[in-house]
From TrEMBL, chain A:
<keyword id="KW-1003">Cell membrane</keyword>
<feature type="transmembrane region" description="Helical">
    <location>
        <begin position="79"/>
        <end position="99"/>
    </location>
</feature>
<dbReference type="Pfam" id="PF00528">
    <property type="entry name" value="BPD_transp_1"/>
</dbReference>
<feature type="transmembrane region" description="Helical">
    <location>
        <begin position="189"/>
        <end position="210"/>
    </location>
</feature>
<dbReference type="GO" id="GO:0055085">
    <property type="term" value="P:transmembrane transport"/>
</dbReference>
<feature type="transmembrane region" description="Helical">
    <location>
        <begin position="139"/>
        <end position="157"/>
    </location>
</feature>
<protein>
    <submittedName>
        <fullName>ABC transporter permease</fullName>
    </submittedName>
</protein>
<keyword id="KW-0813">Transport</keyword>
<keyword id="KW-0997">Cell inner membrane</keyword>
UniProtKB/TrEMBL annotation, chain B:
<keyword id="KW-0472">Membrane</keyword>
<dbReference type="InterPro" id="IPR000515">
    <property type="entry name" value="MetI-like"/>
</dbReference>
<feature type="transmembrane region" description="Helical">
    <location>
        <begin position="79"/>
        <end position="98"/>
    </location>
</feature>
<keyword id="KW-0813">Transport</keyword>
<dbReference type="Pfam" id="PF00528">
    <property type="entry name" value="BPD_transp_1"/>
</dbReference>
<feature type="transmembrane region" description="Helical">
    <location>
        <begin position="257"/>
        <end position="284"/>
    </location>
</feature>
<feature type="transmembrane region" description="Helical">
    <location>
        <begin position="24"/>
        <end position="49"/>
    </location>
</feature>
<feature type="domain" description="ABC transmembrane type-1">
    <location>
        <begin position="75"/>
        <end position="283"/>
    </location>
</feature>
<keyword id="KW-1003">Cell membrane</keyword>
Amino acid sequence: MGRRQSFSDLSYSLVIGGIAILAVLIIVSPVVIALMTSFTAGRSLKFPPTGFSFGWYEQLFDATQSRQIHRAAGNSLEVAAMSTLIGVVLATLAALGIARNRARSARFADNLFMSPLVLPGITFGLAALVYFSTLGFRPSLNLMIAGHLIVTMPFILRTTTASLSQLDPALLDSSQSLGASWFYTLRRVTLPLIFPGIAAGAFLAFMASIDNVPVSLFLSNARTDTLPIRMWGMMESTLDVRVAAVSGVLIAAAFVLMLIMEWTVGLTRRMRD
Amino acid sequence: MTSAVVTAEIYGERRSLRLAEWQLALPLALAFAALFLAPLLLLVATSFFNDDKITEPGFASWAKFFGDPFNYKVIADTLLLGLKTVCATVIVGYPLALVYMDLSPRLQKVLLFIIIMPMLLSVVVRTFAWIVVLGREGVVNQALLGLGVISEPLRLLQTELGLVISLTQIEMPLMLLPLISVMSRLDPNLRDASAALGASRWRTLFTVIVPLSAPGLVAGCLLVFASSTTAFISQTVIGGVRLIYLPLVIWQQSLVVYHWPLAAVASLSLVVSVLTVIAALSYLGRRSSRHLQG
């Protein structure tokens, strides 16, 4: 009996532990391999890379050879920054308005505002294309900002609402009973306390915008395309090894950003809870 | 009398204050109506036009889309791709979440970092990484050739197997985060109690941990399903032109053929079929967890 038990426990450790190690490998290794390949001296994505060189990075950072990639990266940053900025203002206001409101209409509004997360992005992208073309707009960065705003704002609303619901109402009551106006309480008590929530949401929204494909796919043209769309084009046609260099830059950027967010707002804890 | 007036005044002030607070949601509501609800309504309206110039209202686009047996296969393939990816992420991800529970807080932090980090990486980058891994000259083929297991490079790109493997990694964070969130709140005493009562670790897993973590598991399955069925980039780049899923059809009809009514029908079919499966999965999840816990 005892031996069977320990055999069963051993098989548990082997199977569960083995799959867990496999899972970590599956998660990590493609990223590491892509990063290593970006330093190849060869002209193909062979692995192991043939020799070490910064050649693809040099090409990538060359202003004339990679002008379109640079412009796409600039578009991505501009769209992400603007849509996040507008999203922070609108979502924070809305969260202040409805987060602690138990009325059915407020709950409904909250669910409605979160619904872009559920709707397939490609459906909203097509809808936005049809809508803006019907209204007579031509593709522009402003349209992209409007589209990205809708799909990234829920991230800000969610974290801000969560921060507000954890806020002790006694703090607000005491601020007001001590004579502070509603606006003063907002500025000196509420906003500082929910700031980490807003920041975490803004970060997620910014990253979601940078990463967004479905909306950009429909609302951009050759002049206003974003980095993911351009990279997709580069992968679809002839597999341009500069994609590896762009990937390398993005991997490094994600890593640094992640460390910063971890130190400032404790991102991993926030995402787990 | 005076006190009644004062009460009324306080009341009035309170009410106007609440009204003001509620009004803070108005700017977002307006933006939402103009940029989200209106486009979606227009998309639904567009689907009820017969021609690509959008002049003649009718049901011809719906009839055309659902009159073609090929489109049924595309819908079925899309939903099956989602289900296969869900199964793969559960099989590979669940044990990792189990191991996470037993790690020290320090290692938990490292593992969480490893899980979230790919999430911040563009889907395009993650897709690209799999091209490097699965390509003709990629890691898998080079390793198998080197070991002498195969003599010709395997064709892994542009196959459903390759796509499911890639999506397993690409969607894994969506499975792991809700799972870990639920599991880290489980009372460790329950496992100890189960062990003390003589249950093997396997039995504890299936009778204690799995039922209690069901809400996280269901949430993860829903997220992975919704994301993998609509993963346009991964589907087109790794699946290639030979594997056709609904997002590709939508893209072709709208930006290559320019038949917006048909594209609208295809995209509404995507919404309805994905949301139907999601509703069914979450219903089953709720029922089974109630059954197991009740």
